[in-house]
Amino acid sequence: MDRRHAAAVPIPPVKTLSRLRLAAVCACAVSAAVAAAPLRWSNDLPGRPAAWFATPEARTLAATVLTYQSEHGAWPKNTDLAVPLTPEIAAEIKRGGKADTIDNGGTVSPLRFLARAHAAAPDPAYVRAMVRGLDYLLASQYPNGGFPQFFPLREGYYSRITHNDNAMANVLGFLREIAQGKEPFAFVDAERRARCADAVARGLDCILRTQIRQDGKLTAWCAQHDEKTLAPAWARKYEGPSLSGNESVGLVRFLMGVEKPSPEIVAAIEGAVAWLRSVAITGIRQEVFSGADGKRDKRIVPDPAAPPIWARFYELGTNRPLFMGRDSVPRYALAGIEQERRGGYAFYGDWPASLLEKDYPRWRAKLAATR
Fold first, then answer.
1. Would you say residue 31 lies in a domain?
2. What is the Cα 177 distance to its own chain's centre?
3. Which of 167, 118, 123 is nearest to 146 (CA)?
4. Residues 159 and 59 grouped into a single domain
5. Last residue in a domain, options 210, 243, 264
6. Is residue 290 part of a domain?
7. What is the CA angle 192-80-149, rounded to 5?
8. Above 90 in pLDDT, residue 371?
């Protein structure tokens, strides 16, 4: 090499080279840590890129997920399905009342995961599990179209029609995709797709019938409804009959996904959106802090610049934000309930924000274009 050219090549100072080496070492360490980190079950896993489902990691997880399917065809909630099933874990699922549910992503998320795994690398075991799980969901639906939180049925709020945590909306969205023959569910037979379409139609009717009217106007939904009367119903001790600022959002989104909506569906959406706008709370924000005992707590502080927030529960008839502790006594301020519930439950949130700002305008534009 020509020495003149060699001399012209800039050489980073020693400190710069040290920083580069350090950055490279850190990057390698992070990559190694990520690769070495054990995979944990999450309801987000079915949304991973398609290529991942063909990897040995995904295949191993799928094999483990299969072992958690119950004799009824369902899966438990709040359980790490990536951990090999043992008699001790099975006993804990039973003891903790976690089995056979659609709550917190139970059953639906494992079914979505297995469908993605089958699309990446077909396996008859996945299909068998999918069919059993689908039959479980269809069998669990009430004749009126609602879905209980647990099936087989249990005594108590577990058997109410459950909008709580978007349980019913998640199931209906899943069944609608199958009924429409969307990927990765094209392998489902025509007879079951027809049953899914019927289940969705009945579920849609139940959603419309459980929407609460106040002063003749359609508003929102309760987190749970009585499976016989369809009236707003109790769930846990701090989840009383009320209008939901959270679960109503998932139901509206499901309704917005209906192609060629009927006038009744349009009215349900418009009524719920108008109600959500009317109960938005401004001028305050929720602050999370540690109390004197070091435990997590929440408080409401004035803030004129804060974006709108919504209460999880609104009182029937008055639309006042409603708060209950484990004593089930209605109160009208977050500070009025015990610290354990204040810090451990989402009584305030911004759940409707993106629905009102983005989803609803898009839906309105699409609706106008089809008329």
1. no
2. 16
3. 167
4. yes
5. 210
6. yes
7. 50
8. no
Residue 36 has pLDDT above 60, yes or no: no
* Chain segment 243-290, per-residue pLDDT in tens: 999 999 999 999 999 999 999 999 999 999 999 999 999 999 999 999
| Pairwise CA distance, residues 60 & 114, whole Å | 12
Cα–Cα distance for residue pair 355/32, rounded to 1 Å: 39
| Residue type (1 letter), 182 | K
CA dist., res. 216 & res. 227, Å (int)? 23
Contact 224, 255 (CB under 8 A): no
Rg (CA), the chain: 25
Domain match, 199 and 233 both: no
Q: Is 94 within 8 Å of 100 (Cβ atoms)?
A: no
Residue in the structure block whose two tokens are 């087989």 = 152
Distance separating alpha carbons of residues 185 and 193, to the nearest angstrom: 10
Range of the domain at 242: 214-371
CA diameter of the chain: 92
The band of 182, judged by pLDDT with boundaries at 50, 70 and 90, is very high
Residue 1 is assigned to a structural domain of this protein? no
21 inside domain: no
pLDDT at res. 186: 92
Q: How many domains does the chain have?
A: 2
pLDDT in tens, 298-339: 999 999 999 999 999 999 999 999 999 999 999 999 999 999
* Boundary (domain end) residue, out of 210, 231, 263: 210
Instruction: Give bridge partners of residue 213 from the DSSP assignment.
Output: 218
Q: Which active-site residues does the annotation give?
A: 104, 236
The enclosing domain of 244 has a CATH number of 1.50.10.20
